[in-house]
Amino acid sequence: MNRYPAWKYVVILLVLLIGAIYASPNLYVDDPAVQIAGNKKVTVDENTLKRIESSLKDSGLDYKSAVIDEKGMLIRFSDEKVRAKAWKSLKELLGPNYVVAQNYARTTPDFLRSINALPMYMGLDLRGGLHFLIEIEMDTAFQQQLERYKNDIFDYFKANKKKKLRARSMIIKDNVIELKYKDEAKRDEVMSLLRNRVNELVYSSFDRGGAFYIKAEITKAKIEEHRSNTITQIITVLKKRIDDKYQGLMEPVIVRQGDSRIVAEFPGIQDSKELMEVLLAAASLEFRMEHTGYSIQDAQAGKALGASIYTMREDGSKVLLKNKLIITGQDITHATATSDENGQPAVSVTLNSTGASIMKDNTQKNLGKRMGVVFIEYEKDYVEKDGKTVVVKREVKEVISLATIQGLFSKRFQITGLSRAESTQLALLLRAGALAAPIEIVEERTVGPSMGKENIDKGMMSVIIGFILVVAFMLVWYRGFGIVANTALIVNLVLIVAVLSMFQATLTLPGIAGIVLTVGMAVDANVLIFQRIREELAIGNTPQASINSGYAKAYSTIFDANITTLIAAIVLMSVGTGPVKGFATTLTIGIATSMFTAIMGTRAIVNLAVGTKKLSKLSI
């Protein structure tokens, strides 16, 4: 009765083999490394390699190897402190044209890499690095969305001039769009038309001061959709910026946290200044036509409807531009720092299909007129408030170019009016894309490599101690069957590591806590089974019948207990963030693997050991 068919043994052996293969890369410890890449101006070649090797030797900085690879150059070190000194020295030696990044180089053998058997990632708390908590200014993003809807309504009115739908005024107030009419019938007619034309808004009417108003506001569903899209867009842009800046040498972890925050982690990185400049840069562009129907004096007196005053960057003079946007930086798909025909700095821009179509129509309609390119950035001011110094973010808009449209253009054109450094920075930001809303770093935390090493040592020690105590208890209490349970426990640990490695999961300190808990929980199933076998023996059943009955009767209890724990773990993994998610991930994997090893694995060992024998007693 205690026999398995051959296919079950084959399945178990396959699982063990795959688990051993995919867990084995974690036996190879990563080397602290410095990666170096060039750009369009410079390349990493043999001469660069000789310069670097000579500099490192002169500085007394020992390194394991220095080779040129597909990303540039990789220099391996034995010690993280030496790596940090070498990184600083090489940045000074090579200058700003080279990207010099701290990283970790894997030592996994090629035959394992060929089957994608790679070690799991170490989290920030284990490896050290930088942690940023980023706040998104959702109010600004919401206002921008209202501006877009306002422009949609304005375009609809303009396309239906004959119907005379235009309002006496259209303003954004208290997060709604207000349209003012002097006639109630016209107000009701327009509201009916808008419901069919711009149907993403909710419309209502009210009267005030003898005038008739339409109130248009965004639906709650659209607000949540916009919030989610804004966070996703910002995460994508930040990843692109880091990848562009560091030539793909850095592997950041950037994830959403809550309704308006993002967590960005950079394992192995210690210098935050350069990173913060890339993350926080919020420069973008707006393209607007010059308004020639009014003077600056009219605008200052509040008489210039549909226009605003802007400052020219070059000389500080004033210019009047239309409020209606043509395109923004979000319509730009590629940008490169270059020079114009006069050798002056410029940014060569490529638009997406929508932006190109809009730009083509605009240039066709406005030949001979001037178009302004507005450069937008955010500056910090420090002001005294209630006896404390607080930071106030200020939006600065300057016109960097005001040129006459002399011909038809759409997808590709150049922007001038910037310095060489500004054009390079703007090109980088535009390539990655403009942020959908301003962001601010509300928390910055640096975890040193020594702290990471201490965390790894303590975490591993906790796993080892927990494992030894459980093994000792099972051996003393369940004798021969304790050996079976301990074998399953070892296999369970291997399978947890294998699954984490196969999915390239990130192991964190809370994740190690989840593994420690799993070590204790993994033997629960065996305790239930073994106790049930003891009970069957106590009532006079034969050893073989007791084994069969013990596994059969304990199964439902084990299944129910693990399923309820698994549900809780999955919920934590789904809605939790940071440490909670790391803990829940390893716990979920541990529950799944322990069910396999404790029930199917131990039964296979028992069946092979005693399943065909006539027994008078059991070592339990």
Descriptive keywords:
620 residues, alpha+beta, Multidrug efflux transporter AcrB transmembrane fold, Alpha-Beta Plaits, Endonuclease I-creI, 4 domains, 6-stranded mixed sheet, 4-stranded antiparallel sheet, 17 helices, 23 strands, 49% helix, 25% strand
Describe the protein in words.
The structure is a single chain. With 620 residues, the chain is an alpha+beta fold. It has four domains: 6-25 and 458-610, Multidrug efflux transporter AcrB transmembrane fold, CATH 1.20.1640; 31-105, Alpha-Beta Plaits (2-Layer Sandwich); 142-220, Endonuclease I-creI, CATH 3.10.28.10; 223-445, Gyrase A, domain 2. Helices cover 49% and strands 25% of the residues. The chain contains 17 helices and 23 strands. The strands form six sheets. Strands 15-14-20-19-13-16 form a six-stranded mixed sheet. A four-stranded antiparallel sheet has the order 2-3-1-4, with helices on one face. Strands 11-12-6-22 form a four-stranded antiparallel sheet. Strand 14 and strand 15 (318-322) form a beta hairpin. Helix 8 (220-245) packs across helix 12. The two termini are 19 Å apart.
